[in-house]
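Thread: Newbie trying to understand structure tokens

Hi all, I'm a second-year student working on a class project, and my supervisor (Dr. K.) asked me to get a predicted structure for one chain before our next meeting. I've only ever worked with sequences, so writing a 3D structure as a token string is new to me. If someone could post the tokens and maybe explain what I'm looking at, I'd be very grateful. Here's the chain:
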Amino acid sequence: MVAWMDRVNVSRVKHEKLTMMVWQMFKKKCKSITCIVMVATIVFVLHNLMDLTLNDKDSAAKFKGQSKRQADFLLGAKFNMNEQHEDHQNNHSTPHSTHAEEHPTNKTIVPENERLQQFEQEQKRRKDLIQTVCEERRAKHAHATELYDDTQRHIYVVDKYKLMFCYIPKVGCSNWKRILMILEDHSRTIDDIDSREAHARNKLKVLRYYPGKQLENRLKNYRKFMFVRHPLSRIVSAYKNKYADLSVFRVAPRELRQYALRIMKKYRKKPTKRELTTGENITWSEWLQYIADPTEQKKFDRHWKEMYKLCSPCAVDYDYIGKLENIKEEADFIMDKLDISHVVRYPDKANSHPTNTSMGGIEEKFKEATKYQLKRISEIYALDFRLFGYTNPFLNSHEDTGIKEQ
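---
Reply by user tm_fold:
Sure, no problem. This is what the structure looks like when written as tokens:
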């Protein structure tokens, strides 16, 4: 059978149709539940074998899950056709449903079409929120809709798929860079692209590469997406990854080590000669002093610079805004909508190396901050909180930050 399928050169659509054709062929002959289960199992195995034959290992991993859902649907459709004879209540499904079960029980699973609808509704809510906040900014600031210079350096363009991604450091951007590299070169895989290559040698084009009209055309016509993260979590992640982890710090780019030297010199009481030379082991307390210092904000590195300054959401109409807090599910949805899931999938947690901290851990971390530092950090990242719908646990809803944009 495998040898035969090796010669089958069909598209994924034909693949799905073939699976359904096999099901339609046999289901009419089944008169019992046992028969139905056996046929559905055969279709499931056939579907998996074709995946392994027609796709690379990344695509096969993706469609294995889809095959299981397909088998569940086939079972569910037949069970529901016979429900009036079997006295199964409240198990009605539609051709788009994936909530059927391997055995006819009362277990309820959210259908995939409903999950997709919820995702699209959430996307609309996020985009509406951004539009509302941006309109408020336009009324107060003439430059509210400008395209920041950083944005042109942070938007990657993949012409082959007519899509653009704005990356924000400390928001899972390493994996997204790997994904874009694979879209440019289908022979690559997630596993064979290390972090250094993804960041320093990815050969991806950024928006600023394109001259005026070409840039405008891509902004207008290409599909665009970005991912964001809770501002406080991102500050903690930047510290933990870039400065608390000495194995990373010692091989970090020179500019990141220069920040550490400045922090050491400016905020450490009686630093040693070695500390002033290496910048190693800056403390969380010193990091908070630095972040809250009004004289430092304009010189922030991109790893902790305000997210809105990196991606200009008031100037760029993003089709999708994902959140790191739900990265795998949202990445899968977005990649499906962008029609790139057949090429590459967002890696599982086992293949990711995030520096995530729960909100409980975040609040605990910021207990060391003074009231002044909390106020300053709330002011600096106020627009990130508002634009992307994050709650600031240290700012009461009635308080005015008095934010001064820089």
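A couple of things are worth pointing out once you decode it. The radius of gyration is 26 Å. The beta strands are 155-158, 163-166, 205-206, 223-228, 320-323. Feel free to ask follow-ups in this thread.
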